[in-house]
Amino acid sequence: MSVDLTTNFCGIELEHPVINGSGTFDAIAARRAFGEELVRSFPFSAFVSKTITIEPRDGNPPPRLWETPAGMINSIGLPNKGLKGFLEHDLPDLSLLPVPLIVSVMGTSHDEFTALVEEVGTRPEVAAMELNVSCPNVESGLIVGEQPGETRSLLEALRPITEKPLIVKLTPNVADPAAVARAGEEGGADAVSLINTLKASAIDPATLRPWLGAGSGGLSGPSVRPVALHQLRAVADAVSIPVIGMGGICNGADALAFIATGAALIAVGTENFRDPAAGSRVRREFAGELERRGIGSLSEVRGKGLPEVALNLKSRSS
Amino acid sequence: MSGNGSHRVLAPFGRRALEVADNHCSDGYRIFSLRDQDGPVPSAGQFYMLSAAAHWAQRDERPFLPRAFSVADAVEAEQGLRLDFLVDDVGPGTARLAGLEPGEQVWVNGPLGRPFSTPSDLAPGAPGAILVGGGIGVAPLAILRRQLADRGVPTRILLGFRDREHSGGLEDLFACCEVRLATEDGHAGHKGYVTDLLAVLLEGDEAGSAAVYSCGPPPMLEAVRAMCEASDVACELAMESPMACGFGACFGCAVPLAGGGYMRLCVEGPVVGGDQIETALVAGSGHG
Fold this sequence. Notes:
The complex is a heterodimer.
Chain A: E1 7-9, E2 12-14, E3 18-20, H1 27-34, H2 37-40, E4 47-48, E5 65-68, E6 71-74, H3 82-94, E7 101-105, H4 110-121, E8 126-132, H5 148-158, E9 166-169, H6 177-187, E10 191-194, E11 198-200, E12 217-220, H7 225-238, E13 243-246, H8 252-260, E14 265-268, H9 271-274, H10 278-292, H11 308-317
Parallel strand pairs in A: 3-14, 4-7, 7-8, 8-9, 9-10, 10-13, 13-14
Antiparallel strand pairs in A: 1-2, 5-6, 6-12, 11-12
Chain B: E1 16-26, E2 29-36, E3 47-52, E4 67-70, E5 73-77, E6 80-87, H1 92-98, E7 105-112, H2 119-122, E8 129-134, H3 139-150, E9 155-161, H4 170-173, E10 179-183, E11 190-191, H5 194-203, E12 211-215, H6 218-231, E13 234-238, E14 254-256, E15 262-264, H7 265-268, E16 271-273
Parallel strand pairs in B: 8-9, 8-12, 9-10, 10-11, 12-13
Antiparallel strand pairs in B: 1-2, 1-7, 2-6, 3-4, 3-7, 5-6, 13-16, 14-15
C-alpha cells in the first residue's frame, strides 16, 4: 500500500507535510557544505527562510548556545542581511531550491512590517510569508505575539497588502496561545505556526553569571515537545485555519503525534542541527508509521487520532 | 578527490554511521579512528561533527548535540579511509567519544568548513611553513604536516604541552618528523611555552616571510596571532567555538570579525586568517 503524503497548504501544493522551522536550516550555507546533493535531495517540501528585518543585523554577542538535557538554548539575535541584502543576495539563491519558499519577516512597527510584506510579497519567488511576532512593537512597547489585540491589528494592517498566505508564528511564552491564534485568524491570517522557543536562561558554572552573551535565550529540542503538543492541541481546537506544528520533532513517530493532534504541516527544527538530512528521515519514517497503521492519506488521521479502523486493527493484533 | 589540496572538500549530505576501527591512548590523549568507506578525503583543517550512534545522551540527558572535531589524519587503507581524531575527556560528549569501543557506530557529518591555505596562497614567496600547536590542538597540524610533506614544503614544527600526561599523540601523529618541543613542566624540550620557540624563529631572518599555521588553546592562539601581527608574518589559526550544527544552520558559532560583525566559524572557518579577527579569545569555547 502506498501512502499519499501530498497536501495542500493555503493553496500551495506540497509533496509532503515536512518543512523546516525558521532559523534552523540555512539552505545557502548548506549548499556550500554539501554541494548539489542538497538540492537533489532537498529534505523539506517548502523552505522557510531565516527571519529578515528591514535593516541588517549582526546578531547577539557570543556565547550564543548552551546545551541542555534533551535540547539547547540559543540566543542568536536574528542576524541577517536586511531586506535589501536579502532581496539582492539571498533570494536569487533561494529561488533555485526545488520547493516553494516561505520568507520569515520581523518588524518593530506596523510600518516596518508593511514595508517587508510589500517588498517580499510582490516577488514571484515567494510563495508565502511567516510573521515573526516575538518582538516588541516600538509604538506600544508590547510584544506583538503576546497580545491578541496587537496581533489582530497587525494582521488587519497587513492583510490588504498581499494576497499571498500570511502565517503567524506564535510564541509559547503566553498564558493563552489559543487567544492569540484566534486574534490572528480574525485579523486575516491564513495559518499559524507554533511553537517558537521557550524563554530560557543558563548559568555559567564557573562565574555563576548568565552564560549567554545576550543574557537569556530560547529553549528548543525534544525537551519542549510536550509543551508544543499541548499548545498545538489548544490552538488547533481554537482556529479553523491550518496550523504548522513544531517543537522537538525528531522522528516519524513525533511527526505523526503532531499531525494527529491537529497539525496541517510539521516543521523540523533543532533536529536539523544533529542531522542535516533529518527532514528526509522524518518524512520516510512518518510514511512508514502511516503505512504500518493502514492509513492511506494525511486527512485520515489529521487532528483525529487514529481512525476507528486502525484502532480495531491494533486491538486485534495485540 | 585528492587529499593533498587545500580546497574545501564537500561533505556527503546527511549524517552517516561509521564504524570505530580503533581507540587507543597515546601520551595522555585518546586517538580514535573511524572507517569511512564512502566519504571523501578531507583537506587539513576541516572538521567533522561526531556523536555516538548509541547511548549518546547519558547522565542528565546530555550530550544532546554532536561535537566538532578537527580531523588529525586521513589515511587511505584497504578497508577504506581511516579518519583519526584526538579526544580529551572534558565533558559528557568528549567522555562518551573517549570511551568508544571498536565496532561501535558513530554518526558523522563531514568533512566541513574551510581548510588551511597552502603556504604559497597564504604568504607568496614564503620559504616554508611553521606549525605551532598546543595540547590537543596539535590534531589538525598532524594532517597538515603530512599534506605539506607530500608537496615537499619545508616545514618546521613547534609543539607545546602542559606536562608528561598531556603530550598528545606525538608518537602516532608526528613520527618521522623533527619537532621542537616546549613543556610547561620541563619534562621534555624547552621549559615554558611553545610561543617562546616561535618568538626565536620569528626573530630569525629567514622567518620574515614564513607562513604560520596554528591550533591550540585560545590564549596560545591569541599569542601566536599577536606575535605574527607584530612581525608582519601571515598566519592562519584553526579555532573552536560552541557549535550545534557545523554547516551554517544554527548561527551559534559567532566569532567577532576585525572591523565589526561576526563570522560563522563553521562555514567561514574553522581556519581563519590572523588578520580577520581582533582576538582569538572567543567567549564560550572549550565546551565538552
